[in-house]
Amino acid sequence: MTAPSVPADLRHPALAAADPELAALVAAEERLQADTLRLIPSENYVSAAVLEASGTVLQNKYSEGYPGKRYYEGQQVIDQVETLTAERAKGLFGMDHANVQPYSGSPANLAVYLAFIEPGDTVLGMSLPMGGHLTHGWGVSATGTWFNGVQYGVRRDTGRVDLDEVRDLALAERPKLIFCGGTAVPREIDFAGFASIAREVGAVLVADIAHIAGLIAGGAHPSPAPHVDVVSTTTHKTLRGPRGAMLLSRAEHARAIDRAVFPGLQGGPHNQTTAAIGVALREAATPDFRSYARDVVANARTLGEELAARGFDLVSGGTDNHLLLIDLTAKDVPGKVAAKALDRAGIVVNHNSVPYDTRKPFDPSGIRIGTPALTSRGIPASEMATVAEWITRVVEAAGRGDESTVSEVRSEVKALMDGYPAPGLPVS
Ligand code: DSN
């Protein structure tokens, strides 16, 4: 790939001097993130403080093991970093135990399997095309290959999970592990309902809150803490931390979780990431973050209403959280065609399967959008009509091959973005 001709950024002088080619790529990505309307619901902008913590000398240190029980010396500081971060995680999410070492969401979920079940055992999770995650027992994932993945979905008429159906499946299949949560679930998760099913069949219940962790921390979604055995989450979505993950659990599962993460699955933790998670958790405990979480949901709800008013078909009819799943079948534009046109217009989304999709996963009928990143820029609900109008113009233009409308919207997007500088990025 040819590096774009972007001048080396003075924000990273050592990088620019040592490796101008990569410095130029970093500067180009900064420009792209500053200039575009980023609507991928699993992405965000971290604060300058989180960025700084991610780039510290903590990354120079090996520390396999846990605080006080390491396989390397020189842990005087690292032990404090990890303990502080784990304490903040426990406090924020109200769980007895926190393991802050998983490298990301998939290894975190794999550690849960290692902690609680054996290969061949049954796991019940939401199917990927219905909104679940690969690691909830989907066939092409190791979790659906090494374990017996049984999958629930959403009802065709409501687009929502039907707990009676989940219970029937659980009673028939007797899973040892149940996952609730997912990656394209626009509605509130009924943790208490899942817990009652898990108790009935004697399964360990895991809430995968990767998408909604920030909403839970900010009080904009109910907490799983009173109901579930384990909470798995990434730290970089609505929680607005670095790319990483955490496993939280009841006290009785602490040892099994810790042994599964290390030495079961991973080697040394990424200490610079641990510190940056700690910073994000401190930020997430503030009143400002509570307002942010509320605003994320308000923006998504308003954007959903504006899109529905323009003829878009929202799976489940709307949203309770940060995310909208849109079926473009009625617009007669495939999801990928729409996503590519939106990208050319400076509106970044991802194409996504919708429940009961008749198209293939790599060329599906839908797009998935969300409001965490735009809300981090301070873009208010009053701008959602404009955003919905841009999406409408571009998707309809994509259907008729009208590139000039796409270019017009690109300029309008850039103008709005210039008015709402992104955290952690240079101002234009
Ligand atoms: N991180 C998930 C998402 O984009 O929702 C995919 O693994």
Written description of the protein model:
It contains 16 helices and 15 strands. It has about 425 residues and is of the alpha/beta class. It has a 7-stranded mixed sheet, sandwiched between helices. The protein is globular. The chain starts with 12 loop residues before the first helix and ends in a 9-residue tail after the last helix. Mean pLDDT is about 95; it is low at about 1-10. The structure holds D-serine. D-serine (DSN) binds near residues 133 and 183.
Ordered list of secondary-structure elements with their pairings:
Blueprint: H1 13-18, H2 20-35, E1 37-38, H3 48-54, E2 65-66, E3 69-70, H4 78-93, E4 97-99, H5 105-116, E5 122-126, H6 142-145, E6 148-152, H7 163-173, E7 177-180, H8 191-201, E8 204-208, H9 213-217, E9 230-234, E10 245-249, H10 254-265, H11 271-284, H12 287-309, E11 313-314, E12 323-327, H13 335-344, E13 347-348, E14 350-352, E15 366-370, H14 372-376, H15 384-400, H16 403-419
Parallel strand pairs: 1-13, 5-6, 5-7, 7-8, 8-9
Antiparallel strand pairs: 2-3, 4-10, 9-10, 11-12, 12-15, 14-15
Helix pairs in contact: 3-11, 4-11, 5-10, 7-8, 12-15, 13-15, 15-16
Bound molecules: D-serine.
